Amino acid sequence: MQLIAPATYIAATIFLVIMIFIYVLTLSDASKTLQTTLLSEQFYKGFSVPVLFIVPLLTMKSIAEERRLGTLESLMTTPASAFAVVLSKFLGAYTFYIALWAITLSFPYFVKSVLPADDMMVYLLNGRSMLGSLMFISISGTLYISIGIFTSCLTRSQLVAGMLSFLILFFVLMMSFFVIKLPIMNFNALSLVEEPLDYIRAFKHLEDFSRGMLDTRPFFLYLSTTLMFLGITTLVVEAKV
Amino acid sequence: MSQEKTAIQVTHLTKSFGQVKAIDSVSFAVQSGQIVGFLGPNGAGKSTTMRILCGLLEASSGEAKICGISVASHPAETKRRIGYMPERNPLPEDMRVIEYLRYRARLKEIPRKHIKPAVEEAMALCDLNRKASRRIIGTLSKGYRQRVGIADAVLGSPEIIIMDEPTIGLDPHQILGIRRLINTLRGKMTVMISSHILPEIEMCCDRVIIINHGRIVAHGSSASLRKSFLPKTTYRLAVKAASAEMESILTGMQETLSLVSHQDDIDGYRKYFVETSDDADIVEFLIAKLTERRCAIREIARLEPNLEDIFMAATKRSWDETHTPSIQPETSTADI
Lengths: 241, 336
What we know:
Chain A has 241 residues and is an all-alpha fold. Chain A has 13 helices and no strands. Chain A has one domain (6-240).
């Protein structure tokens, strides 16, 4: 179903346009000033921008459209359980999401093919950093896609599902970042939340992964919250049929 | 066709939505291979009962069994035995017919090697195996969409087919096609159909269950329901006889007859409606008496009450029972 939906291809096009744009900008900056970090590290730092657009586009239709058409009812008359239905929706969107991110791995190779300077290749093509970044994107993607699937089950309107998804993703991605910047953090009482907020900062996880630091805590954080969202979605689907 | 095996067994099934009871202690049984019509006015509880049978809704109390398996305890097992066509027949707009049926076959856990023949069989049964199989569902006419819904329901030859209003919104030609289609399933599968189009049910179904206000008010074959709810038989006569003469003829007959009404003369013939207290055949008596009195006869017809009359009588009786406090409501039970 995912592959025959026009929204999927619109999402893919938007994603690639944004990613190419970010890559060109990163490359342009890198060519002007001396860099202390690798190109892939800087490039994947911009991951939140495409995530905010692509996840709602990929997931908003998944359950909302089934509910609008009434096909969720006929789906639930098959031996497939509600969790199996939710999981299949999740895996469909997630596989496509990862496939799109995997395309970005080809960008440095494309640049390499047009740039003859071999001494730049260490900076452009650092396999460990690229794989680390992609690993973070794969792990964090489970949570983002599950949020999209969750918002899609709340309403019959794709548009509302997409907007809700965007809102929650924006909150999840930017919350810790903004809260830490707020002046209220200067109060002693609130300093207690500083550590938990720091723990859930997606950008910090990305930095660690792209530098080759594989901490198990983000794995636990993203996978447990993913399961929680998928579980809630299953309950909502069962209740709304 | 095994008449002994019970395909659907419903016992004291009740479903409440808040304070409102959608169905109240409904009990019935359907034998394997039968085509059963499920009738009732809007909001009577037809769809609720069907949705419980399909495992889409949980009953508040009571038990529903499909082929002897409890729907509440083993939902996946019972779903494997049911092909369900929902009321609005929802279909994905952007899939081709054949793609959709293959997708449904996989969902119904039909083994991979059997998917192709199962889909072809369902499409052939519903006359979708020519051009229509490659068409996008969103571009199909209402009749073809209904066929796709039925093809989905019969896919994989489940033991029970449940169809909620399969002929709604169709033109007479399409209804005829769907009726033929349902007739082809007779004996092969147990079919339960809900419909508002009563002649359809009468022509298709072996048995009828009438539900009103969430309770079973009538059950059985059309003939037994006719006997139970409308035991009187009406005759229509067009004869050259005055009302007084007609009354004297009827008084002289053995049967308990009553002249219900008469209409004005047309070409000298007057139309009378005569009612008997039972289903006795009085045509020969009437002809003999009228001939004896030298009354010219143009027409004598026995008017069989149709399912619509039975439906009206059954729902009216249930309405009277519900709204008369002195009458103790009976338990809703149908054993077919």
